[in-house]
TrEMBL record, chain B:
GO terms for molecular function: 4 iron, 4 sulfur cluster binding; metal ion binding. Gene3D superfamilies: Alpha-helical ferredoxin, NagB/RpiA/CoA transferase-like. This is DUF3390 domain-containing protein. InterPro entries: 4Fe4S_Fe-S-bd, 4Fe4S_Fe_S_CS, FTHF_cligase-like_sf, Helical_ferredxn, LUD_dom, LutB/LldF, LutB_C, NagB/RpiA_transferase-like. PROSITE patterns: 4FE4S_FER_1, 4FE4S_FER_2.
Length: 189, 458
């Protein structure tokens, strides 16, 4: 008796049409400016803040999030050490995560956050507030250019994050802070 | 066995005029947001053509890409399962949950698991399954199916949600503020996420070359569930495949713009390998899809990326509500998918359309939805599933319109009859459903043919 796998593959083979070509995907160019990125991110509920100097990160974070008690970050000596083994109950109390991102996408305000930058896979969504740190030279115009930046694939886990968590499931009223971060700031240096 | 028709279900929805108007206007507003986002992308039409061609190519080599995806996923340490139908899918999920000795399952939005009726199955086996998307949670608490692909609770008003949360989450009676209701759900669901033992997700895209599955959400519920629970189970239909990672450049630009007018979903998450010491499973489901692939007129329906744009634009969907379709996927796309599953049960759905073609115009992967609706109508007629009045009416009209003489005589009779017969007879709503909400125009004194014959030759 053949397996379900073999039966599905055989049915696909028997029923699929004659092969059609796979088109190449062009790069449509576009605007990769920080102005565009800033404008789009603002339209989806996020904020861009320019860092005066790379060394000003800790002080800027302190200034922007004075109430954040438990802060996790690989970029400066934060108040909470998080790694892949951190238990759920500790993660649950994180107020703020400050994480480096690889690049931003100007057309939609998204940034690429690979697993290596997360400390723990749950940190970017379990934290109450989120700050990303982005090099202003690392901006692309579109998602085509974004995926071209990942020649070795997306890694074990990776995400594009565009703004804070949101929902409009109740009468189409936009509410920021559904399950993930309640606010999102991109600190640009 | 007889089934309720789309029209009779729509009639029930229409009893509340105010809500019907609200539903209509709200979804049209979403359509307008879609337009604004689409017009801001100069190459949008090229992207639609690309997306369509990529999906068509994938379907034409589906066996190859399924095998490629499986091999890549296995190499990534992902456990791959195959399910021919809903029963097999559900049994696989239960087996994974039981092997972990788990009872607490958190689920992010997945139309496939709705299609398979996974929740009632798991609950009947003692598993506590919680929908974590806000809209999905609302309708789960109310024991209702979703009424839209991406806005599952769009049939409800904030007062309904307030009542439901008061009853189930203990919020204050009469609370209707969406911000406060969402906060209550956030607190309630946080506890569920933190306790989750198995996380279930759907799949928006599966990448053959990398073996990754991609899930798009705005709330972050998929990521929160998956990254906290020890086990991730992702359920995907075979049509979710795309060949290359680069193809996501096309689809992520189309999906959210078409769905809600956002430039992209908040989270576009790529799951390729389980975290160390954790499990990731992918269940590849057929459930009628290879059969649809074998129907040349209808296989293009498998290109669908579930954006919901065809619903938001459909004049019938907007005024009849998602529940009137009585199928997991409502609206125009559901009306071309459902007859493949059960032609008789869903025989009225392809008629729930004006064939205006607006669905086809907005479809980001260029499915010829209204053409397929028309083709299903012919198949339904041939299979003798038309109601008697429509069947004989069509036969009669077919004869009449084929004969110039009969057309001439009946035109004359109709023009005279409409003038002389009482309104209650010409617009009898029992015999003539067309007249329920419509008035015939004033009959002209003569036909075009009569007028033409009176004109002097040039």
């Amino acid at each position: 008796m053949s397996s379900t796998r073999d039966r599905i593959l055989a049915a696909a083979r028997a029923n699929q049409p004659a092969e059609t070509p796979l088109p190449p995907v062009a790069d449509f160019g576009g605007n990769a400016s920080l102005e565009r990125f800033t404008e789009v991110l603002a339209s989806i509920g996020g904020t861009v803040v320019r860092l005066a100097a790379p060394g000003a990160l800790a002080a800027t974070v302190q200034q922007l999030f004075p109430a954040a008690r438990l802060v996790a970050s690989p970029l400066f000596s934060a108040s909470l050490a998080i790694d892949q083994q951190t238990p759920v109950d500790v993660l649950a109390d994180v107020d703020l995560a400050v994480l480096p991102v690889e690049f931003g996408v100007a057309e939609n305000g998204a940034v690429w956050l690979p697993e290596a930058n997360m400390l723990h896979r749950a940190l970017p969504t379990v934290t109450q507030h989120l700050a990303f740190v982005l090099d202003h030279r690392q901006l692309v115009a579109t998602m085509h250019q974004a995926y071209a930046r990942l020649p070795n694939g997306p890694g074990g886990y990776g995400m594009f994050v565009a703004g804070p968590s949101k929902t409009a499931d109740i009468e189409q009223s936009l509410v920021i802070g559904a399950h993930g971060a309640r606010s999102l700031v991109v600190l640009v240096y | 066995m007889s089934y309720l028709t789309h029209a009779s279900r729509a009639e029930a929805f229409n009893l509340d005029h105010e809500r019907t108007s609200w539903h209509d206007e709200t979804l049209w507003f979403v359509r307008q947001k879609r337009d604004k986002a689409v017009y801001a992308v100069p190459e949008f039409q090229e992207l639609r053509s690309l997306a369509s061609a990529i999906k068509e190519h994938t379907l034409s080599r589906l066996d190859h890409y399924l095998a490629q995806f499986e091999a890549a996923a296995l190499a990534n340490g992902v456990q791959v399962h195959w399910a021919a139908d809903a029963a097999e899918h559900n049994a696989i999920v239960l087996d994974i949950v039981r092997k972990r000795g788990a009872t607490k399952v958190v689920k992010s939005k997945s139309m496939l698991t709705e299609e398979c009726h996974l929740n009632p199955y798991l609950i009947s086996h003692g598993i506590d399954v919680i929908d974590t998307d806000l809209g999905e949670r609302i309708i789960q608490l109310r024991d209702e199916p979703p009424s839209h692909l991406v806005l599952p609770a769009i049939h409800l008003k904030k007062e309904d949600v307030g009542d439901t949360f008061h009853q189930h989450l203990g919020t204050e009676k009469g609370l209707t503020d969406p911000q406060q209701l969402t906060e209550a759900a956030r607190q309630h669901l946080r506890a569920k996420f933190l306790a989750g033992e198995v996380a279930l997700t759907g799949v928006n895209f599966a990448i053959a070359e990398t073996g990754s599955v991609v899930v798009c959400t705005n709330e972050g519920n998929a990521d929160l569930g998956v990254s906290l629970a020890p086990v991730h189970v992702a359920s995907m239909g075979i049509e979710k495949l795309i060949p290359r990672l680069a193809d996501l450049g096309v689809f992520t630009r189309l999906l959210a713009r078409s769905a809600t007018g956002q430039p992209v979903t908040t989270y576009t998450s790529h799951y390729t390998q389980p975290a160390e010491g954790r499990e990731m499973h992918v269940i590849i489901v057929d459930n009628g899809r290879t059969q649809q692939l074998g129907r040349p007129d209808f296989r293009a329906s498998l290109k669908c990326i579930r954006c919901g744009a065809c619903m938001n634009t459909c004049p019938v969907y907007r005024r009849s509500g998602g529940h009137s379709y009585d199928f997991t996927v409502p609206g125009p796309i559901g009306s071309i998918l459902s007859p493949n599953i059960d032609l008789k049960k869903h025989s009225t759905l392809p008629f729930a359309s004006t064939l205006c073609g607006s669905c086809t115009d907005v479809c980001p992967v260029k499915i010829d939805i209204h053409v397929q609706l028309y083709k299903w109508r012919q198949i339904i007629a041939e299979a003798n599933h038309l109601p008697a009045a429509k069947k004989w009416g069509m036969k009669f009209m077919g004869r009449l319109l084929a004969s110039p003489n009969a057309f001439k005589i009946s035109g004359k009779l109709a023009r005279t009859g409409l003038r002389l017969l009482p309104h209650g007879l010409t617009h009898n709503q029992t015999a003539n459903a067309w007249a329920i909400a419509r008035e015939l125009p004033e009959p002209p004194k003569q036909s075009f043919r009569e007028w033409y014959q009176q004109q002097a030759p040039a």
